[in-house]
Amino acid sequence: MAAAPEGGPDAPVRSLRRALLGRGLMAAGALALGPRFLESLATGAAIDDATLVHAPARVTAPPIISRQEWGADESLRTGTRSFAPVTKAIVHHTATLTEEPDPGARVRAIYRYHVQGSGWSDIGYNFLIDQSGLIYEGRWARDYGSDETHGGEDEDGLGVLGAHAYGFNRGSVGVALLGTYTSADATATDAALEALTALLSWKLGTRGIDPHGSSGYAKADGSIVRFPNLCGHRDVLTTGCPGDGLGRRLAEVRTAVAATIASRPVEPRSVEPRSVEPSAGQEQGREADDPENEPKKKRRERRRDQDD
After folding, report:
1. Which of 40-44, 101-105, 154-158, 242-246 has the lowest average pLDDT?
2. CA–CA gap between residue 198 and residue 146 (Å, rounded)
């Protein structure tokens, strides 16, 4: 069969596919996805680099188990909440049982330890995911209406500051998979990774954030550091989290997130990336130590507390 000519009606689509690949917005495995989406882009207005990287996609939120549904004792949490534009996603493991018999009880135990054991104002993670792929609302952001998604955001779409990565909480969404994935042989279930993909496709895609890209991050001391937009905890701090077993899967997650975003229509507006400016008084570390950085004695106490 003769090769298709370089010109022709589908030439703009082929050209855009190559551009998307070059920008890291579409993985090779996603080339078959979203042909109408690609055609609409290719035959529309001129597309520059900023449009390719920062065009928000219409990605819907996945089902999320609310704090009320998993049984959070709201009398435990304290303090006020701070919010910032979401620009990063940081993945963790909880370093607890991998074959968790009662995920809801585990989430409650982690919440209790973070507040009562570590002295934090609330659970540190923004979201948690169990092996069956259920997503749990983490840190409290606000009271939601009956028809609203419990997405960890204020009314303006700013993300609530968690306590999951010391010095990198502002503007990041911290997602923890229940279990221990320290060994390279350990791996999360397909259901858990699919839920992680759905969650991060929504969080990143609606904001026009490239899951394959890297960008600058403004720390509280005014310094700027650059790291991947979708990364593991150990990509920003000296820690083993999320373990070799989960860490090696993050490349697949980035590809899956990029494919999901690419298969959705873009919002008909131009969005400029918003920088995360540090400000005085924000939660920037007191609550953010990862359990894996604790001394062994304290870590044993934490695990004993979570197993209660």
Report:
1. 40-44
2. 22
Q: What are the domain boundaries of the chain?
A: 67-307
Our separate counts of H helices and E strands in the chain read 9, 9
> For 286-307, what is the mean pLDDT?
41
Closest CA to 151 of 268, 73, 273, 60: 60
Out of 2.40.128.120, 3.40.80.10, 1.10.10.10, 3.30.750.24, which CATH number does the structure's domain 67-307 have?
3.40.80.10
Whats the size of the chain, residue-wise? 308
Query: Which backbone phi and psi does 89 adopt, to 5 degrees?
Result: -125, 125
The more confidently predicted of residues 49 and 119 is: 119
Q: Which two three-digit tokens encode residue 209?
A: 């954030």
| pLDDT at residue 44 greater than cutoff 90 | no
Across-strand partners of 127? Answer: 137, 175
| Residue 89, CA atoms < 13 Å, CB-side half-sphere | 27
Q: How far apart are CA 15 and CA 185, in angstroms?
A: 40
Given a cut of 50, whether residue 127 has pLDDT beyond it is yes
Contacts of 242 (CB under 8 A, 6+ apart): 91, 92, 93, 177, 181, 232, 233, 234, 250
Report yes or no on whether pTM surpasses 0.85. Answer: no
CA atoms within 13 A on the CB side of 230: 28
